[in-house]
Amino acid sequence: MDKLSWNLEDIFKNEEELEIAINNLKEIFQKVKSTKGKLAESSDQIYKCYKNLEDGLALHEKVYAYAMFKYHQNLGNQEAIKLFKRIEALTAELSKIESFVSPEVSQIPIEILEKYLKEERMKPYEKTIRDIIKEKSHILSKDVEEALASYSEVFSVSDNAFDVFTNSEFDYNDVIDENGNILKMSEALYGKYMSMKDRTLRKNAYSEICSIYKKYINTLSELYLSRVKYSCITAKLRGYKSSLDSATNKDDSNLKVYETLLNSVNKNMNLVYEHLNLKKKMLNLDEMHLYDIYYNPLQENDENIEYEEAKELVLKTLSVMGDEYVKKVSYGFEHNWVDVYEKENKMTGGYNMGVYGVHPFILLNYMNTMRDVSTIAHEFGHAMHSYYANSKQNYLNSNYTIMVAEVASTVNEILFANYLINNEKDINKKKMLINEQLDLIRSTLIVQTQFSEFEKNVHEKIENGEALNSENLSNIYQNLLEKYYGDTTVIDENSKYTWSRIPHFYRCFYVYKYATGITSAIVIANKILSGEKGYVEKYLNMLSLGGSKDSLSLLKMVDVDLEKEETYKQAFKYFEKNLKELKSLI
Ligand SMILES: [Zn+2]
Questions:
Q1: Residues of the chain where predicted confidence (pLDDT) is lower than 70
Q2: What pTM value is reported for the model?
Q3: What distance in Å separates the CA atoms of residue 558 and residue 577, rounded to the nearest whole number?
Q4: Which of 54, 104, 379, 406 is catalytic?
Q5: Distance from the alpha carbon of residue 383 to the mean position of ligand 1, in angstroms
Q6: Residue 471 bears catalytic tag
Q7: 352: β partners
Q8: How far apart are CA 222 and CA 243, in angstroms?
């Protein structure tokens, strides 16, 4: 067995073992089902239910992972397709069986649940049950819940219509490049054109994007407003203060975090401008427009890093995490945790999935670029998070929530970038690396906060009973553009319509997590690099807690308090440090 692909025998020795597992799985879920309608009877029933559910879900993860990995290794393998489809059907069946558990537990009076939770054997399920208790006051009567559920498909129309409309029904005009060539235009091509050197092409593509969204702005505004109203009405029905209150609660976060993020970024607007002015200088422009921002004049593509070299580089950059961590990463490299190379019919992109009771599995499509090496560091951040959590927590407590999901991976990415910056002798390459860090912070912390501010504004106005139209929405966006770009950049006339391009707005209040995620990662990475005594141990301990505590407490354990401006200040300090360094090199 080579070391460069997954060995699925780590999960099941053969298909026979898989079939046995599938049968076991069905039996375990029948046991879960046997407690249906009885959970209120005694703590024995609840215990039995959760114990079986936990065993079932863990075994299901192995079965699912086995089928999915086999399929992802070769998307054209008919046998794998058949197996994966079968497992997906099984997954749907099992989730239907267990769907009674949370609603039934939430019907049990809190005093009784509290009494049960005092029992030692219930400890592993305390977090899960407490989460249900927390949610309880927002659950409506059975009839209303059923009515809402039966409308759910209708409520998602705006989201689906936006996708269909913008992806397949937009009639883009072709665009012309600096040599007079006529080029096709689409949302995907737009992204590509924006990163190209040809300024005429960038300008024309940008102008085409603005015009098409302007052309359909009334329809797009109706779609978006209906999504916002759905979210506001549901939040009100469920007794939340606002749709923002409801969304942040679901994330295991809160209103204060959201507000602190917005305030903090607003207080650092001078650094945002300083960075944009530096961009303008590097681009050598008298007047910078929004279509100039995504072109990187420092781009270089001459790297060729063999995988062996990449592994060493990743291990070196992660050495600050201590011996135990590095040894485990190195073990992962040698023991088939990673499916390395691009292959015909292999799933594209990169991801990590930690399989409980087995080990993490990382999919890469390694093609020898520095970006690919950084991806290894990133995915190993996820992998080690799942490794620590899975080895220390029971299944239900092992999964971490969305607020911490990208933290460990981004910490590794920043450690990796820092190592490269500090060790690069070639001035041009060094400039490029620092510039990349700045752009990363700009796109995740700053731009996402700008979007978050837009969402908050719109939702608040709707909740205050204001009737908004496309012009109002676009003016809100115009004001934000003026604030976030100051006088560094020319905001072209139709730029204000581009809010209607953002698909994430249909998942209300989603994007702020990109901003809090990178903020947390920057603070943690810098503390690790500062060599503060005992900090790495504290961090690894936090990772090993998985999802056994709420996310804000987990982050506080590593000195990241997302409710305090000081935290964001530290992230901006790092931004400023990079900014000064790049300035000194130009
Ligand atoms: Zn990731």
A1: 1, 300-301
A2: 0.94
A3: 22
A4: 379
A5: 10
A6: no
A7: 362
A8: 18
